[in-house]
Amino acid sequence: MKHFDETATRQPLDFARLVPALRAAFATEAQVPPRHVHAIETAGADKGTVLIMPAWSDVGFLGIKTINVFPGNSARGLPGLHATYVLYDARTGVPLAMMDGNELTARRTAAASALGASFLARADARRLLVLGTGRVARLLPAAHASVRPIDEVLVWNHRPEGAQALAAQWRAEGFNAQAATGLEAAVRQADIVSCATLATAPLVRGEWLAPGSHLDLIGSFTPAMREADVRCFEGARTFVDTTEALQKAGELLDAIAGGTLRADEVQGTLAALCRGECAGRMGSEERTVFKAVGSALEDLTAATLVWQHAESMPP
Q: Which spans of this chain does the record mark as coiled coil (predicted)?
């Protein structure tokens, strides 16, 4: 059984390779059971959530990811999410590899965000606003720049010093990046608003979103989490990564309860977009929303790339 640390997991997962691989994976058939979700409560400790996400396909691989989500870790200076991934031979069940689940999750999440934008953001979208400064948020400019001509990046965080530090990091990477001092003003001028937070109360308000903008919601994945208010869905064409989002995403549940979205008004999934079964953006002035809760198919696709890259290297 091989072990892939953070560096070895990251190396084959550049977005120029990963985004097209996800597009191909969503266009084919795979077995992706619903995730298992368990609340963790221990005496004297913050509450956490454990997610178990299996998937397998005819390519011959089976993968299982375990994610521990503890939002209170930020106060300890620790990431709020820790994950491990085990890849197996789907024909025999033999364990093949243990991979860095944090790196796998972050890169596939950012890549799925970019994949959604490749169908839903305007072709000339160049101003990207990122909400959040965590592991996934840090990757979003590179991911979106692989599918759209991003030349201006703003970042907002509830801790301004975090936004300033991340903007400086992006500038060092070659992006024209600045920290946003006011969230409303930043949302109003953005072509793409990408939220990668663990928020439990809405951050983005629908009246702030400009005509022709694309709202990307990839942080929340439970009914108790939400990054956008109900008006964000009013008058917009809404897409989801998988139908599981309709049961798991707090902002979708709020919008359905509030009457600004009906479940049968959701335009399609990533699979439907990738297969050409539904239309993406249909006009330069329409607003689009992409809500993702994550799919084990994305993890399996990324892990397969890591394994195949290692197998192709000379001994």
A: none
pLDDT above 80 (res 289):
yes
Domain regions of the chain by residue span: 2-104+297-312, 109-295
Give the containing element (helix H, strand E) for 152: strand 152-156
Distance separating alpha carbons of residues 214 and 190, to the nearest angstrom: 9
Residue appearing with tokens 């400086």 = 168
Structure tokens at 67: 């994610």
* C-alpha separations of 261 from 12, 90, 235, 258 in Å: 39, 39, 9, 8
What's the pLDDT tens digit per position in 15-29?
999 999 999 999 998
- Sorted by sequence, the CB contacts under 8 Å of residue 105 that are 6+ apart come out as 65, 67, 81, 83, 136, 294, 299
Name 274's Cβ contacts closer than 8 Å, sequence gap at least 6. Answer: 23, 24, 26, 27, 115
| Residue 4 C-beta-side C-alpha neighbours within 13 Å | 30
Give the pLDDT confidence of 229-264 residue by residue, as tens digits: 999 999 999 999 999 999 989 999 999 999 999 999
d(CA 237, CA 255): 13
83 pLDDT tier (thresholds 50, 70, 90) = very high
Residue 213 has pLDDT above 90, yes or no: yes
Q: Which two tokens stand for residue 242?
A: 């998988």
Contacts 24+ apart (CB under 8 A), 278-286: 280/119, 280/120, 280/239, 281/119, 281/120, 281/121, 281/122, 281/214, 281/237, 282/237, 284/122, 284/212, 285/211, 285/212, 286/211, 286/212, 286/236, 286/237
- CATH T-level topology, domain 2-104+297-312: ornithine cyclodeaminase, domain 1 (3.30.1780)
Phi then psi for residue 75, to 5 deg, are: -70, -15
